[in-house]
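Key idea: predict the complex, not the pieces.
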Amino acid sequence: MSQVKELTIQGLWKNNPGLVQLLGLCPLLAVTATVTNALGLGLATLLVLLGSNVAVSLVRNHVANEIRIPVFVLIIASLVTAVELLMNAYTYDLYLSLGIFIPLIVTNCAIIGRAEAFASKNAVLPSAIDAIMMGLGFLLVLLVLGAMREILGQGTLFDGADLLLGDWAKALRIELFTVDSHFLLAMLPPGAFLGMGLLIALKNVIDNKIKQKQAVEKGSIARARVTGAAQ
Amino acid sequence: MSFKIASSPHQHNQRSTAQIMRLVTLACLPGIILQAVMFGYGVIIQLALAIITAWCSEALILRLRNKPVLARLKDNSALLTAVLLAIAIPPYAPWWLIVIGTAFAIIMVKQLYGGLGNNIFNPAMAAYVLLLVSFPLQMTQWLPPLSLQSISLTPLDAVCSIFSQFSCSGFSLSQLQSGIDGISMATPLDTLRTDLNRGLTLDESWQRPVFFAFAGTGWLWLNLAYLAGGLLLIQQKIISWRIPVAVLGSLFVLAAVSSLASSDTFAGPLFHLFSGGTMLAAFFIATDPVSASTTDKGRLYYGALIGMLVFLIRNFGGYPDAYAFAILLANMTVPLIDYYTRPRTYGHRARSELK
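Result:
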């Protein structure tokens, strides 16, 4: 049980692939113009990550160490192809709007990173849990960034959610405010970089606050420094 | 008498940052007054909005960073950023434009990099680019100079237009934009650019009322006013002559050569020097002590780079004027320029003499 908890904390917060490891920045920054796109790509990545971690974990004892990376890439590439075909079949409009970034999931370093760092050394069940938590962490960052950019850029939330979830999801669309001129920067790549930077800063602020609080609770006394540069 | 122990250079200017910033702002005044007289009172309201926003956002972020608020506000650097941005945007742009721009300049471009002295990019120009990229329509709505306006605007109309985009008597901004002949007017640079793209020659385009003498109506005087302010700054030794001279020189040479080569498709050097934001940018914006190059030789390279970029973007790029882009691009090269143009330390020989 404690391993599940540890993996959850690692994936969602401490070692978040989006905010801490900074892996998979390309899709993270490119497709988060709306929440729907972010959700679509996040789910696709989660699915691929789960599949690849389980598969890599299953074959980890049968693959020679020297050729493990090509094997991992093969596994990931075939899974991505499957996901791409699925999205082409069932969410065609979203497939069009995500474009090249679905095949590019293959190059998402978060996936091969987890395969190499975790799944190739652990049993199937922990690998699956790790994949789910890492995928969720990535998905959450995508969603927050997507929401920030969509609200700033268009004043809406879940615009075009029906592309992903079917016709009922049209009801999800929330119009927060209407403006004559959209804040284009939020929709453009620089806006994604700015938003990402602010999110990382926010996480660091929260971490620092927590650390300070823990230091106070422990009652540790910082030793006065007499020599050397003060920190 | 007190002994001051200071490191070299011992002979230096006694002016504080606050005094320098105040003097630069004051040197803008002739241009600002002329702009208010020739293009309407909108610029005064934009200035007020920009300065209030700049002070508020600076105070806010300084409090968040646990820095002394009043001491930093008094150095007038936020004031100068606000002034430069307010005179660069169209005078009748909606009020939220200048508020977003100034807040972005102070918070994102200046304070997030560590405050005054640490920003890589010129805050006013980075904010200008943000606005131009985000709100292209509002950022190009320049009214024609007063002498060409068909509907004259009172100061109250300026307030109405900025806050509601309609003058008090109910004219929309696009109606106000039209000249005496009822045709919507753009800035001289924009007009020339559109005409040349439509296949007209320079002489044909020149018949339009926005042009006057060798530049644009109103814009010529505006540039002369900023030139006067800039010369005052050089005379007071606040800015070095190198950057403005290099900017104007490279623009002049490139424009002269191209217009000699093809006088029907390239405007002459004087038109380039006295149109758009040339003088304002060359003397007041490119010379920003923080984001510009700091060595003597480096300043010449930096200025020449800006002039070249402006010429290229004005003639071949997607925008009619280009100072914001040119200055930001040149800002990026400053660390490199400074690295390769470090002056010789006193007592050391130049590298060429060592061999």
